[in-house]
UniProtKB/TrEMBL annotation, chain A:
<dbReference type="InterPro" id="IPR015368">
    <property type="entry name" value="UBA_C_fun"/>
</dbReference>
<dbReference type="InterPro" id="IPR016135">
    <property type="entry name" value="UBQ-conjugating_enzyme/RWD"/>
</dbReference>
<dbReference type="Pfam" id="PF09288">
    <property type="entry name" value="UBA_3"/>
</dbReference>
<keyword id="KW-0808">Transferase</keyword>
<keyword id="KW-0547">Nucleotide-binding</keyword>
<feature type="domain" description="UBC core">
    <location>
        <begin position="3"/>
        <end position="152"/>
    </location>
</feature>
<feature type="compositionally biased region" description="Polar residues">
    <location>
        <begin position="154"/>
        <end position="163"/>
    </location>
</feature>
<keyword id="KW-0067">ATP-binding</keyword>
<dbReference type="GO" id="GO:0005524">
    <property type="term" value="F:ATP binding"/>
</dbReference>
Automatic annotation (TrEMBL), chain B:
<dbReference type="InterPro" id="IPR024991">
    <property type="entry name" value="RING-H2_APC11"/>
</dbReference>
<dbReference type="GO" id="GO:0031145">
    <property type="term" value="P:anaphase-promoting complex-dependent catabolic process"/>
</dbReference>
<keyword id="KW-0833">Ubl conjugation pathway</keyword>
<feature type="region of interest" description="Disordered">
    <location>
        <begin position="109"/>
        <end position="132"/>
    </location>
</feature>
<keyword id="KW-0131">Cell cycle</keyword>
<dbReference type="Pfam" id="PF12861">
    <property type="entry name" value="zf-ANAPC11"/>
</dbReference>
<feature type="compositionally biased region" description="Acidic residues">
    <location>
        <begin position="35"/>
        <end position="49"/>
    </location>
</feature>
<keyword id="KW-0479">Metal-binding</keyword>
<dbReference type="GO" id="GO:0005680">
    <property type="term" value="C:anaphase-promoting complex"/>
</dbReference>
């Protein structure tokens, strides 16, 4: 136990020394305990996460460094290997491929590189992975939007500089769908504002999409189906 | 001028010779390296090359469970050329998750110079009882 703490204290100190170079920071959650940390790293350049800062909750188990660190994204991130709901991470080195030579810092570097090299065939978030595999364009746009909303990335450098909120109901609906982690291609097709309307009643957005698809609740068909039928399905 | 030495304190420094540790186990014709040239490196606190990757304490120090460095807490070399405090690598290899691999390169850990186990005594497979 003493060795674990000694090593962790040294790691934190080392990381603080070169944080200006790497952009990676680590701080203790409680000043007098070496069990929990919060690490941050910048989103990698040339990815939709660029410009964002990502906070990671880190827990060092008692058996550290012989047992893996537990890491979870605090900052919401749209990525196939990170749960968009809980921030849980699917990364082999944090599970079966752990090695005692890994440190707080090297693990944060690994997460940073995970952001630039998604592994959609071994997903943590199947919905996100599906979008990644079907449309990189839609994936990138949502990931970028999440980086702006949650990770503090500068908003898009679109030359017209039009404010997002003025984009009309469809645009706002799409944005809301994106934040809910819905494939906005599908949301657009169903009519994003309708999806959002049901989601705002407190239903899980992905379930809303599922039900609307099932009932073919779109365009001219909406009236025929009726929103009571949708609600009935959603409650069941 | 005459000097009479009344007494003196002899001070000796020692270091593990990381290179020799490997050569020891190599065929006889390996040349010993010229001594003295590699002594120039200054104390570099976080030079990753000089610390045990497992406990991150200097090779010349001892593993966290020991009090005195030196023969009581020796280093150990793998055939993969990686070096650790012996106590540290033993602790790692004792865990199930190690899969008996070197922590650096995940090759099966083989202690350099260790005799191959006799054919009739295969290393006991470590099997943790797994009860669902």
């Amino acid at each position: 136990m003493a060795s674990r703490n000694k090593r962790l204290a040294r790691e934190v100190a080392d990381c603080q020394k070169d944080s200006s170079k790497s952009g990676i920071t680590i701080r203790l959650v409680h000043p007098d305990s070496l069990d929990k940390f919060v690490g941050t790293f910048p989103g990698p350049q040339g990815t939709p996460y660029e410009g964002g800062t990502y906070e990671i909750e880190i827990e060092a188990p008692e058996g550290y460094p012989f047992q893996p660190l537990k890491m979870r994204f605090i900052t919401k991130v749209y990525h196939p290997n990170v749960s968009s709901q809980s921030g849980f991470i699917c990364l082999d080195i944090l599970k079966t491929s752990w090695s005692p030579v890994f440190t707080l810092r090297t693990c944060l570097v690994s997460l940073q590189s995970l952001l630039s090299t998604p592994e959609p065939n071994d997903p943590q978030d199947a919905e996100v992975a599906k979008v990644y595999l079907t449309s990189r364009e839609r994936f990138d746009e949502t990931a970028r939007y999440w980086a702006q909303v949650y990770a503090g990335a500068p908003s898009s450098t679109s030359p017209n500089g039009a404010s997002e909120s003025e984009g009309g109901e469809d645009k706002q609906g799409r944005r809301a769908a994106q934040l809910a982690g819905i494939d906005w291609g599908i949301a657009d097709e169903l009519g994003a504002p309708w999806v959002v309307r049901f989601a705002e009643m407190g239903f899980e957005p992905r379930k809303v999409v599922e039900v609307l698809q099932l009932l073919n609740y779109r365009a001219d068909n909406r009236e025929r189906v009726g929103h009571e039928a949708v609600l009935e399905r959603l409650f069941s | 001028m005459k000097i009479t030495i009344n007494n003196y304190h002899a001070i000796a420094l020692w270091r593990w010779n990381l290179k020799a540790g490997l050569q020891q186990h190599q065929p006889a014709n390996a040349q010993p390296t010229a001594e003295g040239e590699e002594e120039e490196e200054e104390e570099d606190d976080d030079d990753d090359d000089d610390v045990c990757g497992i406990c991150r304490v200097a090779y010349d120090g001892c593993c966290p469970d020991c009090k005195t460095p030196g023969d009581e807490c020796p280093l150990i070399w793998g055939e993969c050329t990686h070096v650790f405090h012996m106590h540290c690598i033993i602790k790692w290899l004792d865990t199930e998750s190690s899969k008996q691999q070197c922590p650096m390169d995940r090759r099966p850990w083989v202690t350099a110079g260790a005799a191959a186990p006799p054919p009739d005594a295969p290393p006991a497979p470590r099997q943790a009882a797994r009860v669902a």
